[in-house]
TrEMBL record:
This is Metallophosphoesterase 1. Coiled coil: none annotated. It comes from Phaetusa simplex. Metallophosphoesterase that catalyzes the removal of a side-chain ethanolamine-phosphate (EtNP) from the second mannose of the GPI-anchor protein intermediate. Participates in the glycan remodeling steps of GPI-anchor maturation to allow an efficient transport of GPI-anchor proteins from the endoplasmic reticulum to the Golgi. GO terms for biological process: endoplasmic reticulum to Golgi vesicle-mediated transport; GPI anchor biosynthetic process. It is a multi-pass membrane protein. The keyword DNA-binding does not apply. Belongs to the metallophosphoesterase superfamily. MPPE1 family. GO terms for molecular function: metal ion binding; phosphoric diester hydrolase activity. GO terms for cellular component: endomembrane system; endoplasmic reticulum-Golgi intermediate compartment membrane. The chain crosses the membrane at residues 20-43, 360-381. Keywords: ER-Golgi transport, GPI-anchor biosynthesis, Hydrolase, Manganese, Membrane, Metal-binding, Transmembrane, Transmembrane helix, Transport. InterPro entries: Calcineurin-like_PHP (IPR004843), Metallo-depent_PP-like (IPR029052), MPP_MPPE1 (IPR039541), PGAP5/Cdc1/Ted1 (IPR033308).
Length: 398
């Protein structure tokens, strides 16, 4: 009898320790699930599709069913095998995958545009590395049939102009069904896809082909917008497109001196705003920018490349939105644009992703709490009351 009772007493501390260990494991798992999974739902759930502004410009026939819900993001910069550390790859790709998949599930966009620099090392990638990068991209950005994904080329995908080759351009076009000068029309809305890297203006083979397609598309769109009683003879045999003014989608922004006039919490840091932009490197040249506006008279321009947000008004009437990077490797507060678009109007809203600094703070706070719980459990953490009591007793003894 005595032996059985003593065994029960000895097993009691063991059960308590196992129970305590189980609680710690549950605590750690809960923190991981929240920071690596649930936090994306908590943050993105707060985003709402903007309502298209009313007024004289909105056709009475336009209803909620004719509004196109477009999600726009840029500069994902999937790391490659040359400069990408495996841990950095794992972390950044998981963040982007969870953000994208959560946004698709909660927001259900009709179409998604990625404005270039999909890869970080596409300009250097050998065939096997390229195939691996494309496979990883398709896994991260998989989407249902109901959502269309349109990917636009950037300088990190095919190289800057001096690195760009026909082989790299064709490789990208084959992987993503991309064509410069391509028109995408959805619900009567015209989107013009531009290879901005090819707008160097030096007559290179890729540049000539790209510009020729843009000029031909410009002619079609201009003919489609003419009224029947003022039709041009040159438009007689031209295929008619929806008369909606186009939206330009490209990687490089149109020419601007710097980001000095850009505002907002996700604009460029103050120390970088006044740094002059270099034409054909940071932004398009003035000549190429003017050509695009002459050719298309767009009602909106969406671009990436700078990794920071900016809103610019060209010629006093054409808005351009520079979309920040979607990767936490490039900024602490990534975001994407939500656009409600009709043939005659549009409304844009920004949706921020979880701040990485806040996720790090949660991990630090959870780690500190975990240490305190462990110390308290093993009675290694003396409560302040008992500590003061011991000091008083020692003083009296002296």
């Amino acid at each position: 009898m005595r032996s059985s009772s003593s065994t029960a007493v000895k097993s009691l501390p063991l059960k308590r320790r196992l129970y305590f260990l189980l609680k710690l494991v549950c605590f750690v798992i809960s923190v991981l699930i929240f920071c690596e999974f649930l936090i994306y739902y908590v943050v993105i759930f707060q985003c709402r599709w903007p309502e298209v502004k009313g007024g004289a410009h909105v056709d009475k026939k336009e209803t909620s069913t004719s509004v196109l819900k477009a999600m726009i993001l840029a500069d994902t910069h999937l790391l490659g095998e040359i400069k990408g550390h495996w841990l950095d790859k794992l972390r950044r790709e998981w963040q982007m995958e969870r953000s994208f998949q959560t946004a698709l599930w909660l927001l259900q966009p009709d179409i998604v545009f990625i404005l270039g620099d999909v890869f970080d090392e596409g300009k250097w990638s050998l065939p096997q590395a390229w195939a691996d990068d494309v496979r990883r991209f398709r896994k991260m950005f998989k989407h249902p049939v109901s959502t269309e994904l349109v990917v636009i080329v950037g300088n990190h995908d095919i190289g800057f102009h001096y690195e760009m080759t026909t082989y790299k351009v064709n490789r990208f076009e084959k992987a993503f069904n991309f064509t410069s000068g391509k028109l995408i029309t959805r619900k009567g809305i015209n989107f013009v896809i531009v290879n901005s890297v090819a707008l160097e203006g030096d007559g290179c083979a890729v540049c000539r082909t790209s510009e020729a397609k843009l000029v031909a598309l410009s002619h079609k769109l201009n003919c489609s917008q003419q009224k029947q009683n003022h039709s041009d003879k040159r438009c007689t045999d031209v295929e008619k497109l929806p008369a909606s003014e186009p939206i330009l989608l490209q990687h490089y922004p149109l020419y601007r001196k710097s980001d000095a006039e850009c505002t907002g919490e996700d604009s460029a840091p103050p120390e970088e705003k006044n740094i002059p932009f270099k034409e054909k490197y940071d932004v398009l040249s003035q000549e190429a920018s003017q050509k695009l506006m002459w050719w298309f008279h767009p009602r909106l321009i969406l671009s990436g490349h700078t990794h920071s947000a900016c809103e610019v008004l060209h010629a006093g009437k054409i808005p351009e939105i520079s979309v920040p990077s979607f990767s936490w490797r490039n900024r602490n507060n990534p975001s994407f644009i939500m656009g409600s678009i009709t043939p005659t109007d549009f409304s844009l809203q920004k949706c921020f992703l979880p701040y990485e600094s806040r996720v790090f703070t949660i991990y630090c706070a959870a780690g500190a709490l975990l240490v305190i719980l462990i110390l308290a459990h093993f009675q290694l953490l003396t409560p302040p009351f008992y500590f003061a009591q011991r000091l008083i007793s020692k003083h009296k003894a002296v």
